[in-house]
Design goal:
Chain lengths: ~300, ~280
């Protein structure tokens, strides 16, 4: 088992830590359902065209940009670390319901608001997920949640307490509050019919290197999470540790991190999960290159100014 | 002209075609572009990123003039777009934020850059005469449209109104009664193209830590198109100013004094600028 810092690197060697682990003594749930293209064809989502306009950052620039962002403290994980009045923004917690696909978008909203200097607000992901699913415990996909966030927003826990499934909160004042926390623009729907996987990956990377968090759906995990940072293999190797605290050999590291992965260029993604802060390191984990390319992705660019 | 989509064939009569030909966006404003023949085609204004959608139950060919002003793509049915990206079409009544085209054949032209371009729409069907020979397409079967993207305007330029007085750049951009505040206005779409020094000022730790100490909760870094829930807020007030000559731009205000300048090239200089106003 290898970690970067204290963040889990998700691999076959530690499947029990991310497949269906118990966090704080309770079984966690995921909840990704692959996107239904019949009901949501390419072009369905707001901002679909923006993907075309998003000129990818050339791969040759990735290492330098990543190094510069890290050095200047401009990575999204670094913004999260001080995003709540100088303290770390807490992780969302889907608490055993299959609402990962909405929590991943809310995590992105929290990051965008922190990036923009907007004060922390405790957004309640259950509100939108309950509304979309008629209060049933059902899976969905990331863009489905973000589409709702763009139309109606997400209320704070003052109006819809965290993890509440009570219909009593579904009222006018809740949704008036939610409009203050509405997603305004994003690069949504990468128009997959026109792009191959490589280009989609480069757009995801470009978003992450531009300070735009990405909702990442992973079919292999059956899970949707918030993509925060690009992680380069060299740096990951330098920061990695085995379970016994020792540094892994190059061979041990390569067993979980394919540096020559031709799709990702050997880059992984730091993700922000929705299983609370107890999972991995403050709720963050690292996906190695072979697991990083999302099967569905939506980037959130701007949110409404709440004040 | 550049051939952009494949020709599909079907056995049809021209009568059918004329009765159920392609549907175009409704033109909001129609003027005579030229007073004499040849008659100029109808035109539609678009902004970059918007779509000109043509929908038909019969196959069609869409040809553009190869200028690259628009990109043409065939879409599968049902096709859906946010209504604001499809001017001239009626949104679906149950969800006005979206427009849906159920037609069998859909061609979407996306405005890529400013300019004007002409398109021609032809029926892509094979109509046979009594001998079984294909009838040639005539001029009347072809429909033309002119698409104007961005600031292009076929109308003669109107006389310029007298210039409004220059905005007052002195004083607090947020209003004198506001708490000490700072706002950076930038374009999030192109933020990746900024020099590192400016990028690090907008997103980086050092400037943010300074602001957190000096102006707790009274600083923002906003995209120039951000939507304000409270249009009377100090942030909206500063954003509505017309004095930004470039992006990113820095506003700082405290009491009666203020600053409205291009964002300095490094976070050190930005800290210096803010410190001049916020003691």
């Amino acid at each position: 088992m290898i970690s970067i810092g204290r963040s889990l690197v998700l691999s076959e060697h530690n499947r029990s830590a991310w497949q269906d682990p118990a966090v704080n003594g309770s079984a966690v749930k995921r909840g990704l359902v692959p996107r239904n293209y019949a009901s949501h064809p390419a072009g369905s989502y707001e901002g679909a065209v923006r993907a075309v306009d998003l000129r990818p950052i050339p791969a040759a620039e990735w290492p330098d940009r990543l190094r510069d962002l890290r050095a200047s403290g401009a990575l999204l994980s670094q913004i999260r670390a001080a995003g709540k009045d100088g303290r770390m923004i807490p992780s969302t917690d889907q608490n055993g319901r299959g609402y990962c696909w909405y929590h991943s978008g809310v995590s992105c909203c929290l990051l965008v608001r922190a990036r923009d200097g907007q004060p922390f607000s405790d957004l309640s992901a259950y509100a939108g997920a309950c509304k979309i699913k008629g209060f049933r415990d059902e899976g969905g996909w990331g863009a489905q949640g973000v589409d709702f966030m763009r139309k109606y927003g997400t209320p704070t826990s003052q109006f819809w307490p965290q993890r509440s499934t009570s219909r009593a909160h579904d009222n006018e004042s809740t949704w008036a509050d939610a409009l203050k926390y509405r997603v305004d623009e994003g690069w949504i729907d990468l128009d997959s019919s026109q792009y191959n996987r490589n280009l989609a990956w480069s757009q995801v990377v470009t978003c992450l290197l531009s300070g735009h968090p990405v909702v990442c759906d992973y079919n292999w995990w059956g899970h949707s999470v918030c993509g925060m940072d690009l992680v380069d293999g060299q740096r990951a190797f330098a920061d990695s540790r085995l379970a016994n605290g020792k540094r892994p050999t190059a061979k041990e590291f390569e067993a979980v991190w394919d540096m020559s992965d031709h799709v990702t260029g050997g880059y992984g993604i730091r993700i922000w999960n929705s299983w609370g802060d107890s999972w991995s390191e403050n709720g963050e984990g690292v996906l190695p290159p072979s697991r990083s390319v999302p099967d569905g992705s939506v980037a959130i660019r701007t949110m409404v100014s709440a004040d | 002209m550049k051939l952009l989509i494949a020709i599909l064939t079907a056995a049809l009569t021209f009568g059918q075609l004329l009765a159920e030909g392609p549907r175009f966006p409704e033109i909001e404003q129609q003027v005579d572009v030229a007073p004499a023949p040849p008659v100029e085609p109808q035109y539609q204004r678009l902004n970059v990123g918007q779509y000109y959608v043509i929908a038909s139950d019969f196959p069609m060919l869409v040809l553009d003039d190869g200028s690259g002003i628009v990109s043409v793509s065939v879409r599968t049915s049902p096709f859906m777009l946010p209504s604001r990206l499809a001017p001239g079409w009626r949104p679906q009544p149950e969800d006005p934020e979206f427009t849906v085209w159920p037609d069998r054949h859909i061609v979407a032209l996306r405005a890529v850059r400013d300019g004007s371009t002409r398109i021609a729409v032809l029926p892509a069907v094979c109509v046979l005469d009594s001998d079984g020979s294909q009838k040639p397409i005539t001029r009347s079967d072809v429909q033309h449209r002119l698409l104007l993207v961005g600031a292009n305007d076929p109308d003669p330029p109107a006389p310029k109104p007298p210039s409004p007085p220059s905005p007052d750049l002195s004083g607090n951009p947020f209003g004198e009664g506001s708490p000490p505040s700072m706002m950076i206005v930038y374009e999030s779409e192109t933020v990746k193209d900024l020099p590192l020094g400016q990028y690090a000022t907008i997103h980086g730790r050092a400037f943010r830590a300074f602001l957190e100490q000096r102006l707790p909760k009274q600083y923002r870094m906003y995209d120039q198109h951000v939507v304000f829930r409270d249009t009377a807020s100090i942030w909206a007030k500063a954003m509505s100013r017309k004095d930004r000559k470039s992006l990113p731009w820095l506003y700082v205000g405290s009491g009666p004094s203020g600053l409205s300048i291009p964002l300095p090239e490094s976070h050190e200089k930005a800290i210096e600028a803010v410190s001049k106003v916020v003691k």
